[in-house]
Amino acid sequence: MSEVQPVIEEIAILGAGSWGTALAAHLASQCQVVKLWERDTGLAGQLAETRRNEHYLPGVILPPGVVVTADLQEALERAEFVVLAVPSQGIRDVVGRSRDLLRPGSALVNAAKGLEDATCLRLSEVVCEEAPEFANRLAVISGPSHAEEVGRGMPTAVVVAATAQELAGQVQDLFMTANFRVYTSSDLVGIELGGALKNIIALAAGIAEGLGYGDNTKAALLTRGLTEIARLGIALGASPLTFLGLAGVGDLIVTATSKHSRNRKAGVLLGQGLSLQEALEQVGMVVEGVQTIRAARLLARDRGIEMPITEQTFQVLFSGLAPGLAVSNLMTRSKRHEVEDIFLNRIC
User: Fold this and answer.
1) What's the topology of domain 8-186?
2) Architecture field, domain 189-347
3) What sign does the CA torsion over 306, 307, 312, 316 have?
4) 84-120 CB burial, b ≥16 within 10 A, e <16
């Protein structure tokens, strides 16, 4: 953290779900005004009146410095930093609507995790397509950071990567507090892919849990799942070391094991025999892994990358494969050596 931080007068957070609400509560101590934009006027009015988001983040009270609005222009016109906290499949629409309203010189910070289903693009690539003039003012923040804990000020560590290292440092200063530690990285590709692909492995781990399997099974899935994440990430230009950090193994652990994880919960319900639609209805909020898995599978196939856990999870979600048979398919694959040359060649 810098010894002397510039005073930030106003920032905007687009999206008042659990993550957007938690970030609003967190960042209220870092700047004078936080504009929290919610597209639903009814929900925005309720949040402004009660100062609570009981559906998405119960128990967290919005500080006085948070101003809730359903007016996108009002949210953006004076914001020095704009945090994108909408679901991944909504990024393109929101950025497109925001482009002409953004303050010149402002910076975009993407806090969503996923891949765009229709294009297989990383979310920073989506932002750059919709607002190319902000390509050099774009940062991505990721890591093990459940909204339920961030909103209550529990100690958390994340990592930020940006198209310019100066911007990464600015975002680090903005977000960093005594309870929220921020590291910087130059590997934007790896930070994004780690945050997106871990949701797929968390779904698989949840399915195993729903089937009644134990810690051995989950440990195997997480370990080999991390290999899949790194395998695709390296092929797309990421550093293998990124996947050993907060946006890789850190986020994977928390998403695959936490009671707060939507992806894990959806997987548990699938393992217990529910259909995908039934599982999603019970979770009641966006399960990013369901969208990301389609894009990840296409990327892997296009590049000839082997991702067996991703493939078997996809078959359970969309082709009616019995979860138990998916586990059997993974366990009876041909014999392999554990350490892969691709990792050794890139690390050494």
Assistant:
1) Rossmann fold (3.40.50)
2) Orthogonal Bundle (1.10)
3) negative
4) bbbbbbebbebbeebeebbeeebbbbbbbbbbbbeeb
Catalytic positions, written as ranges: 198
What pLDDT is attached to residue 2? 44
Inter-residue contact 153 to 145 (CB < 8 Å): no
Summarised one tens digit per residue, pLDDT across range 37-60 is 999 999 999 999 999 999 999 999
Place of tokens 């699938």: 270
On the question of pLDDT at 3 being above 60, the answer is: no
Condensed to tens digits (0 to 9), the pLDDT of residues 83-141 reads 999 999 999 999 999 999 999 999 999 999 999 999 999 999 999 999 999 999 999 99
- Give the residue extent of every domain in the chain: 8-186, 189-347
What tokens were used for 319?
A: 């082709």
C-alpha 285/C-alpha 332 separation (Å) is 35
